[in-house]
Amino acid sequence: MTYALGIDIGGTKIAIGIMNSDNEMLCTDSFLIEGMTAISIFVKMQDTIEELVREAGLKKDDISSIGIGVPGIINKDRRSVLFAPNIPLLNDFPLYRSLRNMFPDASIVLENDANAAGLAESILGAGKNFDNMIYCTISTGVGAGIIIDHKLFRGSHLAAGEIGHMITFPDGEPCGCGNRGCAEAYAGGANYPKYIRHVIDSGRETILKDYLEAHGTIDGRALSFGLDNHDALAEEVFSKICRTIGILFFNLYKCLNIDCYILGGGLTNLGDKLFTGIEENFQKLRVGADTMEKVYFLPAHFTSNEIGIYGAALVALENR
Ligand SMILES: [Zn+2]
Fold this sequence. Notes:
binds zinc ion; 2 domains; 5-stranded mixed β-sheet
């Protein structure tokens, strides 16, 4: 039996777990990082790892591989982050070197978090019965892990799966990446609330104005509240989200012929109506013989809280 350490680095917290080579998670822990310096984060991470190793009844030497999931693009050597827009701290944090000092003999590898999540859904989750699948997370951003023949497809520069920046409406809304009309510009939790606020400011009648006044923010829950109350603005935004993701999946299907789309991330709290809306938009685009094949749209097996640790640990085992 060998043991792997999975470390999931998120925007607000770090989650760590130990998995054995039977893909069983032995123990996990997490801590919030807001307001912490790089040094204090590493000290806390070190303490948490040592505590988990003890809890699992192991010694540090028993850990033969480490996988680190990060919300960014990884350098080719898989030892550092090329670009992590949501965690600026990561750009100059010597994560690899710090862990190498702690575990001189273990294999250590970084992975994009959506890729790691895709691996988790493929090996242990909703995609385990599919040879090919795409895990798509719709949250603050839109990203994916692409699995082909049960293996993670990383692309030439380890940046495959950045599907949130595929163009679904040419010359459309501006996206944080600098382009216009990206899927993320419509479905990303950092973007559609801006549009809703803009419409509220323009004076249009909408129940979302009441939501904003009561909660001080517009998010997925606001959208859900608006839809429950048949609000026209909520329905307009929701329908644009379903359209953009439907187009996105259709384009991926045409390019890769992958028949399984697994959805995770905060927006899936909208439930069945989101899956139905996306599938309807997808099916509308299919023509001819193509319409014969079944295509699956499934909710992720893992919760947003746990998928990162499972993914990171499975990446570690894959790289052992
Ligand atoms: Zn973009």
